[in-house]
């Protein structure tokens, strides 16, 4: 999985006053969990744009100066409900021998015969929760729709791998090819035409 580097500074004070001062200065207060002790730090809000405002999943290298560096993943983010300003971010530290859980985007591959016949592809799950060792975290979960006919559904069991676990019930629908209104109308009209007697034919 691709990695993004975030450069920040450790926080000595974590009270409300210092937190407010950080935000007013354009910085985001953060906490790194998963190690022996939580690590409180801050970084400029602009440093998170390639991590937060993207559909892709990334791991993070947090550099805090003085030689301190941590590998991590984003766990939770708090955003202001009106301004969309980032208020706080939680990270979880990665260890080579310890599995971690994160959301990975689903990527559609192939061409569905059902879509070519007029069906509509619906992606029910844009991201799925994956549990794996850091080295086995995938950038995407590829959903191959090349065998999907109109009306078919793809379940999460089609995306299983020996390298990671998918934390969803087996009946979770990832994608489906729905019958469009136009295709349904055409099928109804074709059925009516097949039942109707041919013009000029004597009874």
Strands, total number: 14
- The outline comes out as elongated
Structurally, the number of domains stands at 2
Q: How are the strands of the biggest sheet laid out side by side?
A: 1-5-6-7-3-4-2
**Proportion of residues in extended strands:** 35-45%
**Could you name the ranges where pLDDT drops below 50 across 5 or more consecutive residues?**
none
Number of helices: 4
Helix content: 10-25%
- At the fold tier of CATH, the topology name of the largest domain is Ribosomal Protein L25, Chain P
Assigned CATH class of the largest domain: Mainly Beta
Mean pLDDT: 89
CATH superfamily of the largest domain: Ribosomal Protein L25, Chain P
Sheet with most strands: 7 strands, mixed
**CATH arch. level architecture of the largest domain:** Beta Barrel
* Assembly state: single chain
Kindly describe this structure:
Strands 1-5-6-7-3-4-2 form a seven-stranded mixed sheet, with helices on one face. Strands 11-8-10-13 form a four-stranded mixed sheet, with no helix packed on it. The protein has helices at 16-24, 49-52, 113-116, 181-195; strands at residues 3-7, 9-10, 27-33, 39-44, 59-65, 68-79, 86-93, 100-109, 120-123, 127-132, 141-144, 153-155, 165-166, 173-178. Helix content is 16%, strand content 40%. The protein has two domains: 3-94, Ribosomal Protein L25, Chain P (Beta Barrel); 101-192, RNA Polymerase Alpha Subunit, Chain A, domain 2 (Beta Complex). It is built from four helices and 14 strands. It is α+β, with helices and mostly antiparallel strands and 203 residues long.
